[in-house]
Write a structure and sequence with these properties.
This protein is of the alpha/beta class and 204 residues long. The protein is 53% helix and 21% strand. It has a five-stranded mixed β-sheet with strand order 3-2-1-4-5.
């Protein structure tokens, strides 16, 4: 952290208040424990702001995604969609470790999270999920359990997952074209320099 602070002070080279900035930064405690506490404090504050915004809205929507970390444990990501004026913002509400990915276990994990943070299921009007059988099943799937307990919530199949399924049924000609398009997009987005060249070519 110290080299970063020194670089920050150099930004104010020649300014009359540079010494004040340097003295203030020199007085910072930079021990590992102090930095850890500050990071935890900022994380807690950010989490409280997101949760407060989520609870203050009359209606909200949720979306979920499952992934596996490097230890091969299943992780459930739950996103909240918040209406802020004329904008819809999406914030990560939680990342939950799952010991099993059955519909019952996923619902239990999300419901426990809601209970612990005093979130109201009555405010949730829509839940977007992927098309896995454990999610979409009408009896033992997450969708079936959720709609039996909260019938007012509309469950939607993720459009991203639908696109992935649809892409498997493309004709060979169209699939070949799409592969070229995907490679071009990846090449352009892989480096900032490529992006700038591409944007510049569009203006000509």
């Amino acid at each position: 952290m110290k080299p970063v602070h020194e670089s920050f002070v150099e930004i104010f080279e020649g300014e009359v208040f540079q010494k004040t900035v340097r003295d203030a930064i020199t007085g910072f405690a930079l021990s590992n424990n102090m930095i850890t506490r500050r990071i935890e404090s900022m994380g807690k504050d950010l989490r409280e702001q997101i949760y407060e915004g989520f609870c203050s809205l009359p209606y909200t929507a949720l979306a979920k995604d499952k992934s596996t970390d490097i230890t091969l444990e299943a992780q459930l990501l739950v996103y909240g969609k918040l209406a802020c004026g004329c904008r819809i913002e999406e914030e990560l509400l939680c990342c939950l470790t799952l010991h099993s990915t059955t519909g019952h276990d996923v619902f239990s994990a999300v419901n426990t999270f809601f209970t612990e943070n005093q979130f109201d299921w009555g405010r949730v009007v829509e839940y977007c999920i992927d098309g896995a059988p454990s999610m979409m099943g009408r009896n033992n799937g997450f969708r079936g359990i959720l709609q039996r307990k909260f019938p007012h919530i509309h469950v939607r199949h993720s459009i991203v997952h639908r696109e992935a399924l649809a892409s498997k049924e493309l004709s060979s000609v169209f699939n070949e074209v799409m592969q070229v398009v995907i490679k071009v997009v990846h090449f352009v987005k892989s480096r900032d320099f490529n992006c700038r060249l591409f944007k510049g070519s569009l203006h000509h």
